[in-house]
Structure formats: C-alpha cells, structure tokens
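#lab-general

N.A. 3:47 PM
ok so I finally got the sequence cleaned up, no stray characters, all 196 residues accounted for. can someone with queue access submit it? mine expired

B.Y. 3:52 PM
send it over

N.A. 3:53 PM
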Amino acid sequence: MDVSASVDATEHDLQLNGLADALTDPSVMTAIGNVGGIWLTSFEWSGRYNQKTQLDWRFLVNEADIKAAADVIAAQPRSQTEFPTALGYALGHASVLLTRAPETCERNVIDMAGDGVTNDGFGPSSAYKAFPLADVTVNGLVIGEDQNAIRYYHDEVIHGPGAFIEITDSFEGYRDAMIRKLLREIRGDQFALNLP
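B.Y. 4:20 PM
back already:
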C-alpha cells in the first residue's frame, strides 16, 4: 500500500479500508474458499527504507479467518507521511517477504498499488535483476488518471506470468478496483492488459 507523500490522510484511509472491505466482499471470500485458501501478508511502503508490515503472513480459508485479517489491516496506523515513491525498494521488500512465507505456494503474486512513479532509489527493472522474482507475478493497481503512471506500471512494474494492471480513476474507486483485482488473482484468470 502506497503511503508516500502524494497520498493524503483521506486517500490513505480509502486505501486501508478499501483493502479490508475488498477482502471481506462476499465474492472474494467465496473465491478464497473455492481455491482452498490463500496465504496473505500486507505492508505499506513509501521511500527507500520505509516499509512497515500491516499484516504478517496468515492463511485465509474461511469467513472468520478473512474477517480477522481484514480487521487487523483496517486498524493499522499510518507510519509515514513525508517520504517519496520507491517502487524498486518496495518490490525488493516484497521479494524478501515471499522467501519467509510459511509454505511453498503454487503461485506467488505481489500486488503493487500506487498513484505515481519511482522518484527515489532504483526502479522496478533493477529490482527484477537483483531479487529472485523470475517466477513471481507482479500485478499493478494504478490510482488516478495520470497517463504517465499508467504507462509506467504497464511498462516497468507488472512482471511475470499473466501480469496485468487494474486502474481506478480515483481513491474513491479503490475498493471496487481491488475487488476486481483480487478476484482475477485468486481465481488465476489473469490476462495482461494491452495498452496502445
């Protein structure tokens, strides 16, 4: 979850509650149950050295598991407000988290959601060279109508088998976009988005 300086307090709350609400959407909970459960961890990120866990690894398979995880996420205080956007470092952090997953999973997916491009540290291409992400799918959720950000996520961020981007034109649409994204990821019906 992007908590860089470009994200104000209202937009942060829309992301935080949007993720929690998306997880507990009935269609998402059904999808999680239908695949036999998923492992989930979540963190917020901004500058090079600003990543903070919101939810440590949890196995979600039923409504109680999912709602408990969503409650933990929704209750997390924001840790940073003043740092820039370091997508490469966020990807590196996510890669390290994947190595700490309690079980080996059939598919490994990283969700990158944000409203801008890297303006601090190395970019995604360097992260893909430096970290063991060859078999990991990285999908993007672009917030806003900034064509540069959309192109950047399409060209630089998404990565791996079936990678795609989801777009919402505002933070108010974050919840619905996250539901669409989670359903595609959980069910495995991922198709790359082709942009002109």
